[in-house]
# Entry
Amino acid sequence: MATDTQPVPTPEITADVVVLGGGPVGENVAQYAIEGTDLTAVLVEGELLGGECSYYACMPSKALLRPLAVADAAAHLDGISTPEVERDALLARRDTWVSHYDDSGQVQWAEGAGMQVVRGHGHLVGEREVRVEGPDGGEPTLVRATRAVVIATGSQAAIPEPLRALEPWTSRDATGVQEVPEQLLIVGGGVVAVEAATWMAALGSQVRLLVRGESLLRGMEPFAGQHVLESLQGLGVTVELGSSVVSGERADARDTGLGRIHGGRVSLQVDGREGARTVSGDEVLVATGRTPRLDDLGLESLGLTADDVTGVQRPASDDATGAPLPPWLHAVGDASGEAPLTHWGKYRARVIGQAIRAGATGEQLEPVPEVVPVPQVVFTDPQVTSAGLTEAQARDAGYDVVTAQVPFGGSAGSALLRDDVTGTAQLVVDQRTTTLVGATFVGPEASELLHAATIAILGQVPVHVLRHAVPSYPTASELWLRLLEELPRELRAG
# Structure
């Protein structure tokens, strides 16, 4: 007997704010959009709630690097027996900090903060409409936003075409390592490359860093990359500058899960200072940058492209993404094309979330400064920290600047950190306004000096006023006095 079958209706959810991406940036924008109100928010996430930072980047890498920094500090202080790195214990510490790749705690927090978590891959299908495909191919869900949709999908590793067939490691494999390769090739000279080289060398790998450019940490002050170069060489890392990887080959691959070694040895054809040659290793980590994760988001359904999301220069005070995106659609974090740093994405998420809330409640928003310095820390040994502009960037931007530079061990407090402190501290000062536009500190525990620089730049505090900020003795913050004393007398006089 024939029966009529009716199509099963697609489940629907309606919320005021729908956020694509449940990393720290997505969580922040949703939290700030709804807190203290009756507004509702949905977080759409196809992987682990908490995102790249929580499981594959910031947290596991720092969980690996911090014990190494402590051990290295002890090795440079008389009177202490140098601790040894225990590989299994170090990896176990990493696993604890990533909650053994279990996001139930993150889900509990989000739901406790009033957010609904919807699992699956979300893509736009119309104005304020997101279709979420279930993680296991289950029934899709249509999620409608009454006010805003926010793209907070983060970024993904950018792998050059000649290396894709090798199934190389990315930062996820490096932070999740289980089987430590005897010989590791790293392609790249940026933050991921130098941090991974540090912990992989400590875990026992013979690391070879292949850097296309002529320095490490390009975009930061040149002395920063030089300090890190010397440090890595001291750890036994082979650093080859001016080395471009042309192509590569790999023996038969095998997959052993997270932290996998993908198979046989890797051979890379390199064109460098010594001409064309071949280098080989058990594994290769490609750390050549990241790109916004905007594939398969349904942007075309709105007549938009990825360039429309990332190609707009957004002032920090902009409460939305800005044209050509429609006013209900926002982008934030790595997906927006802005500085790919978790703390910067969370800051922008707070600004945008508050603006969405204000649009719904009519509350008055406080003005946002037009220029907000972006701080950054590289957790190598020594640490590299910066805020604002480098000297070259400031000059290119039209500032008439003067710099002050001192050795990082140039104060009693910073010299006490180790018996052989290495590093450099520098301020970049606009001579017209006598205010800081940039600062870089390279040295042990340098990250603890950075926030003062960020505040000084943001607050546009004249250097003659900064001289009255009294540092405790003996602490590393005394470096501020040494730096200010290096500036021309007329700037210090006010």
Observations:
- The longest strand covers residues 141-151.
- The longest helix spans residues 342-361.
- Residues 161-288 form a domain with the FAD/NAD(P)-binding domain fold (CATH 3.50.50.60).
- Residues 405 and 444 are 17 Å apart (CA to CA).
